[in-house]
Specification:
This protein has about 400 residues and is α/β, with parallel strands linked by helices. It has 9 helices and 22 strands. The longest helix is centred in the last third of the chain and has 27 residues, at about 385-410. It is globular and about 80 Å long. The structure holds flavin-adenine dinucleotide.
Length: about 400
């Protein structure tokens, strides 16, 4: 059975960032990857997707974007190439095509089983992605036959959907981007809107992410927020990677997208929408105002504010049997796949219980989930700080193990 000091599961940007930090401390490790490096970016992104974070924010341990377009936004293919180059430059010990099928605790560490053999290691880092399985609500089963159903992970471009109207469910980053793209392709689009995070692409003449970065909002730490559970479940920002272009609900309405409330159910083939659209928009406007207040306070002067979200009449029902809707896009979020984790660290909802990525099982770590250690933990730019801190903790754990072995030998 091969042995190493740390098994990292997953070769996305988080696994590679961890590998780089471990290598800096000469901690022997291996990165086991089910597909290839940057698998999520190769297999789960639609054709037109660009990062919503500007290129200058594409920073990893020992790497920063140095290309000609710092204010542009990388395509998924460019992200893949960047991560391949990063893995090569770091000489990351990645084994591709290796699927981890179980992780079990054992005397002094873990046994990691894969389709290609079993590893033993005192420490394991779960870098297997927080957003690898699209969440589809149970009501999807009630959609009448003949309507195509897709998730953002399976969607590629408007040409792949049948002609006709589209219902996009969910108005976070993926939902607003796809509603925008489908409306621009000439399709009638209805967007079901629940709680969302409104965000202008630019504010005070700069990309909004510049302000969030410079003012320290993205660096806010997990042990400083009042309601961490809530902070970890905040929807993604309504942003698209296109210079100066905002995709909030006002912009989508102007592009012809019909807004509806949250999809509450499907009964007798009729999609039923909540009457809460005005309320959720008012709440999103309020939260945006608070965020811009924080930025203004940091900048020392007031900026020019976007107007309120305008909600005209919103349908409460949509007959899915009427032929108006040919496809439904379930942009209702993502979750990790941890079905192979045989270590008692999951809560009732199947989420890993952890304190800033440190689990209750000594030597088992997690990286890459929302607000793991800072507000930007789920962004590429969040991996460097999180990986450095987790590596420090992991090294301390190894020292403690070595100390214990020495004491029991003497
Ligand atoms: C649609 C979308 C758009 C995003 N846009 C941005 C953006 O603009 N800017 C930004 O900074 N972030 C963005 N993100 C967030 C973030 O960068 C990604 O979620 C990122 O892919 C997460 O990185 P990761 O390394 O944690 O996980 P992943 O990239 O998902 O990597 C996990 C890896 O683990 C592997 N794996 C999983 N299970 C196993 C197993 N059992 N055995 C072996 N290997 C396994 C997978 O194959 C995968 O390669 C976006 C995310 C999504 C979903």
């Amino acid at each position: 059975m091969p042995k190493t000091t740390t098994v990292i599961i997953g070769a996305g940007h988080c696994g590679l960032a961890m590998s780089r930090c471990l290598a800096t401390r000469s901690i022997d490790h291996v990165v086991l990857e089910h597909g290839e490096v940057a698998n999520s970016w190769r297999t789960q992104r639609w054709d037109s997707l660009r990062l919503l974070t500007p290129n200058w924010m594409t920073r990893l341990p020992g790497y920063a974007y140095r290309g000609p377009d710092p204010d542009g936004y990388l395509t998924a293919r460019q992200v893949t190439a960047m991560l391949e180059d990063y893995a090569a430059a770091s000489a990351a010990p990645v084994l591709t095509g290796v699927t981890v099928t179980s992780v079990q605790a054992t005397e002094g560490g873990y046994v990691v089983r894969t389709g290609q053999g079993t590893w033993r290691a005192p420490t394991v880092v779960l870098a297997c992605g927080a957003a690898t399985v699209p969440e589809v609500p149970a009501v999807a089963r009630l959609v009448p036959g003949g309507i195509t159903q897709v998730t953002p992970a399976g969607y590629r471009n408007p040409g792949e959907l049948p002609g006709g109207g589209v219902l996009v469910v969910g108005a976070s980053a993926s939902g607003v981007q796809l509603a925008d793209e489908l409306a621009r392709s000439g399709r009638p689009v209805t967007l079901a809107v629940g709680e969302h995070v409104r965000m202008p692409r630019t504010y005070r003449g700069r990309d909004i992410l510049w302000w969030l970065d410079a003012s320290g909002v993205l660096d806010q730490r997990w042990d400083e927020v009042d309601d961490l559970v809530r902070a970890r479940n905040v929807p993604s920002m309504q942003l698209v990677g296109s210079p100066g272009r905002t995709v909030d609900l006002n912009a989508l309405s102007a592009a012809g997208v019909r807004l509806a409330g949250r999809l509450a159910g499907i009964s007798g083939g009729v999609a039923q929408f909540s009457g809460s659209l005005r309320g959720v928009c008012a709440l999103a406007d309020l939260k945006l105002r608070r965020l811009l207040n924080t930025i203004d306070a940091w900048a020392g002067t007031a900026g020019e504010r976007p107007g309120p979200t305008i909600v005209r009449s919103a349908p409460l029902g949509l007959d899915l049997r009427s032929g108006q809707i040919a496809a439904i896009v379930w942009a209702t979020g993502y979750r990790p796949d941890l079905s192979w984790l045989d270590v008692p660290v999951l809560d009732r909802k199947g989420r890993i219980i952890h304190d800033g990525g440190v689990t209750a099982c000594p030597g088992l770590y997690l990286i890459g989930t929302p607000f793991l250690r800072r507000r930007k933990s789920s962004l590429i730019d969040g991996a460097a700080g999180d990986a450095a801190e987790l590596t420090r903790h992991l090294a301390g754990h190894l020292d403690a193990l070595a100390g214990r072995r020495e004491r029991s030998a003497s």
